[in-house]
Write a structure and sequence with these properties.
The complex is a heterodimer of chains A (480) and B (276).
Chain A lengths: L1 H10 L2 H20 L6 H7 L2 H10 L8 H31 L3 H6 L7 E3 L4 H6 L6 E5 L36 H7 L5 E8 L6 H22 L1 E7 L4 E3 L5 E12 L5 E12 L5 E7 L4 E3 L2 E18 L2 E9 L3 E3 L6 E9 L2 E3 L5 E3 L8 E8 L2 E9 L4 E3 L2 E18 L3 H19 L4 E7 L5 E6 L4 H23 L1
Chain B lengths: L2 H32 L2 H29 L7 H23 L4 H18 L14 H32 L4 H6 L3 H33 L8 H23 L4 H24 L8
Helix pairs in contact in B: 1-2, 1-4, 2-3, 3-4, 3-5, 4-5, 5-7, 5-9, 7-8, 8-9
The chains are: A alpha+beta (480), B mainly alpha (276).
Bound molecules: protoporphyrin IX containing FE.
Protoporphyrin IX containing FE (HEM) sits at the interface of chains A and B.
């Protein structure tokens, strides 16, 4: 039983969070340094044998998708969830009961951060505290050494001791403090601001959970397709039941011939209902249709292949570089359009290269197969033809094709919402954290100021001191 | 004025900025060595002057290039130094903390020195890089990295001061550990908030440009590692208290990660981000 309790304690502890985050950071480092997703042979070739073995054994060739990385992330979520759920009641209680003059003053060490005669509200206003409560309270001035809080008791749900500047999570018995607020005590002023900031860290954790959930669900359910072609072609979008027609594709150039923008005009048809929607997709400006996003992803060259036999044209195929045409007239005969060189030349070693991206001297690299046997391979330039037995082939009309990526990730909004939550929560946690300011009038009628802030006690104290100094300066110059 | 003229002016300003930062660094060292308030004050003014000229240099380059000057190693390095300088001046003004200058100025100087070694050629951007999101992404990165630069210097002071317990000089010249910790925490908070924003805007841009908001490319991964390191700083500081050294050590490691994300990833690991 004790063992179980220990495990439970550990699972919800911040120590566990720190360990998990450390391992995740190390895993990310490995994943960024070791090239991901290569075939096994790549690692055996580039690393020492043992290192390659370790990479494959630990799944370091695909760190971000391997089981232990996912498991660590799930543990982090569990840890976050437990910590958030268990801290919730304590936070709620602190929000409701933690900010009272009695509590603040009971925990005070009576070292005034500022002293003022006359209206104390001046300093409150200067520090941005607007709704100041006033009342009377029986407070015992310290007899020399200490007037600080007695009897503090740890928050049960606060598993990790939060030692923040100055103010511990004091839980002084509430009724004793209530009794301290009385009609015939000393005049007291008290104000608190940014109470909601108490929720900063909590909301940040919640936001992280949402981000991880959105990302994880996205990984599981998103889908991705690629469609490429030249204007006029219509192709299916994977198995979605939609068809994509490329209406136009343009490449805008700058004066120096570098590319300014790629734009595809497309129409998407729902083959079931017949509904059609269209628009243009360019780099950095994807098109959203039918719940999918269409990205102008890349471009390449396409050309028309003509097949002739005995002076008669047998067939005509529009091929993008990388595609092949099967010749219907003779089973097993196929022509692959391997690559295209718009400004064709040969380098010193006789390899085909292109001198520029301008269409000056087209060169078509092709391979011809007959039943898996290579029967021809070369670069064909404009006007040339390939002859294989009775067949003649020519390439003509090179033109750029467009490659459109189609993506669907219904959970990306969830991840985005989580990210936004984290961002807002951080503002709460780091800037709008709770601050309390109070003043008690001493026998001589002087207001003694105290203040606290669990998040930044020291700096808040300095801020009060500075505001006090500024106030004195202003009042002096006004008085002159 | 033609765009070349703007770039010439920028060149001149850049040199002046280097000289001013160097002068400020020397003055801060003098301030620390002989504890002359005046030297510290003067250093602050020289820094501020350097910052004004630095801003002018960035603006002229922006006009000369006809876009935000945030796209290659040179531009990003000089902006990075500018960001640290901005955050330093804010912290100097807010916390009246002159000794910080002696630790921040060397960092600024190293980064601007790195910038000086890079090519200053202005090149047209590939289409994927012309995005407003990218502009927001990189400008916020500068603030974030600037704040982390300040926290690095303060945390270094924290760690050194702890190790120099016997040195009267350190005990006298450098604020106490509690204050150093408080300031470092403020700097990390600012940096962490902005880094979060940087990662989110980067994700939005990646989603628009590449169709995937997170693809574990090395630069993304390293920004996440940096983010995790600073999250560790925040938690260690909370759970172990300000007296503990471990948080400060993470603040130092965090900044090394920042530098690696920015320089190491580009030069050592190939990826989508390798052009910037
Ligand atoms: C990716 C994961 C996490 C992130 C980004 C994160 C972020 C944060 C942030 C920004 C703060 C506020 C720090 C400050 O105000 O100085 C915080 C506080 C805290 N975190 Fe986390 N955290 C994460 C994971 C965890 C986990 C798993 C635990 C589980 C035990 C945890 C426990 C705490 C606690 C107890 C606090 C103090 C809360 C308070 O001041 O009210 N954190 N966290």
């Amino acid at each position: 039983m004790d063992q179980l309790k220990k495990v439970w304690r550990f699972l919800r502890s911040m120590k566990f969070a720190v360990i998990l985050l450390l391992i995740l950071a190390a895993a990310c480092t490995a994943g960024s340094v070791i090239p991901q997703g290569q075939p096994t042979a790549w690692y055996t070739e580039h690393y020492a044998q043992q290192a390659a073995g370790a990479v494959m054994l630990l799944g370091l060739d695909d760190v971000f998708h391997c089981w232990w990385f996912v498991a660590l992330t799930l543990f982090l979520c569990l840890n976050l969830l437990l910590c958030s759920v268990l801290r919730f009641p304590a936070l709620l209680r602190r929000m409701r009961e933690g900010f009272t003059p009695a509590r603040a003053i009971a925990a005070w060490d009576w070292a005034p951060l500022a002293k003022l005669e006359g209206e104390p509200e001046r300093l409150f206003a200067k520090l941005g505290f607007h709704s100041v409560r006033s009342g009377k309270m029986a407070v015992h001035l310290p007899d020399g050494n200490s007037g600080a809080a007695e009897g503090t008791e740890a928050d049960e749900a606060e598993t990790d001791r939060v030692e923040a500047d100055g103010a511990e999570t004091d839980r002084v018995e509430t009724d004793r403090l209530k009794a301290a607020e009385s009609a015939d005590g000393r005049p007291v002023r008290y104000a608190v601001k940014y109470k909601a900031g108490l929720w900063g860290a909590w909301l940040c954790h919640l936001g992280m959970l949402v981000v991880i959930a959105g990302f994880g669900l996205g990984q599981m359910f998103k889908s991705e397709y690629t469609v490429y072609g030249v204007p006029g072609q219509t192709k299916p979008v994977g198995d979605t039941g939609y068809e994509l027609t490329i209406d136009d594709f343009s490449i805008a150039l700058r004066d120096d011939d570098t590319v300014d923008q790629y734009t595809s005009e497309i129409t998407v048809t729902d083959t079931a209902g017949g509904e059609q929607l269209g628009g243009s997709a360019s780099v950095n400006a994807p098109l959203s249709l039918f719940g999918m996003k269409f990205y102008q992803n890349s471009t390449g060259w396409a050309a028309t292949l003509e097949t002739w036999k005995d002076g008669k044209k047998l067939q005509e195929d529009l091929l993008c570089a990388g595609e092949y045409a099967a010749i219907a007239d003779l089973e097993g005969l196929a022509v692959v359009f391997n690559a295209f060189y718009p400004d064709y030349a040969e380098d010193e070693s006789g390899q085909p290269v292109t001198l520029s991206s301008a269409l000056k001297n087209p060169g078509y690299l092709y391979t011809i197969y007959y039943h898996d046997q290579v029967v021809g391979m070369n670069v064909l330039t404009a006007g040339e033809k390939i002859t294989v037995e009775d067949y003649e082939f020519i390439f003509r009309d090179p033109q750029p094709y467009t490659l459109i990526q189609v993506k669907r990730d219904p959970f990306r909004y969830l991840a985005a919402a989580g990210g936004l939550l984290v961002l807002c929560a951080l503002i709460l946690a780091f800037y709008l954290y709770p601050r309390e300011l109070w003043a008690v009038q001493d026998e001589d009628g002087v207001w003694c100021f105290g203040g606290r802030s669990a998040k930044a006690g020291l700096l808040f104290a300095e801020e009060i001191g500075r505001a006090w100094a500024d106030l004195k300066k202003e009042e002096q110059s006004d008085g002159k | 004025m033609g765009s070349d003229r703007f770039l010439q002016v920028e060149n001149g300003l850049f040199t002046a900025v280097m000289v001013l930062y160097l002068a400020a660094m020397v003055l801060y060292f003098i301030f620390l060595a002989v504890k002359r308030e005046k030297a510290g004050k003067a250093a602050g003014y020289v820094m501020a002057a350097g910052f004004v000229l630095h801003t002018a240099a960035l603006v002229t380059r922006g006009i000369g290039a006809g876009r935000l000057p945030l796209t290659n190693q040179y531009e990003f390095a000089t902006s990075f130094a500018w960001g640290i300088c901005l955050c330093f001046l804010i912290f100097l003004w807010k916390y009246r903390f002159q000794a910080l200058g002696a630790f921040v100025t060397p960092v600024i100087f190293l980064i601007i020195g790195y910038a000086a070694m890079q090519s200053r050629e202005v090149r047209e951007l590939m289409p994927a890089l012309r995005s407003n999101w990218l502009g927001i992404h990189v400008s916020t990165a500068i603030i974030s990295y600037g704040a982390f630069g300040v926290s690095f210097a303060v945390s270094l002071m924290f760690l050194l001061r702890r190790n120099m317990k016997d040195s009267a000089f350190w005990q006298e010249h450098i604020p106490d550990e509690r204050k150093l910790d408080a300031i470092s925490y403020r700097a990390v908070s600012l940096g962490f908030l902005f880094l979060t924003f940087v990662i989110i805007t980067g994700a939005i841009w990646a989603e628009r440009a590449w169709g995937s908001y997170w693809s574990w490319d090395p630069k993304e991964t390293w920004s996440l590692i940096t983010w995790i390191i600073y999250a560790l700083y925040l938690h260690l500081r909370l759970s172990r208290g300000w007296k503990d050294r471990s948080a400060a050590i993470f603040a130092v490691i965090g900044f090394l990660c920042v530098i690696f994300t920015y320089i190491g990833v580009n030069t050592l690991i190939p990826g989508i981000h390798s052009y910037a």
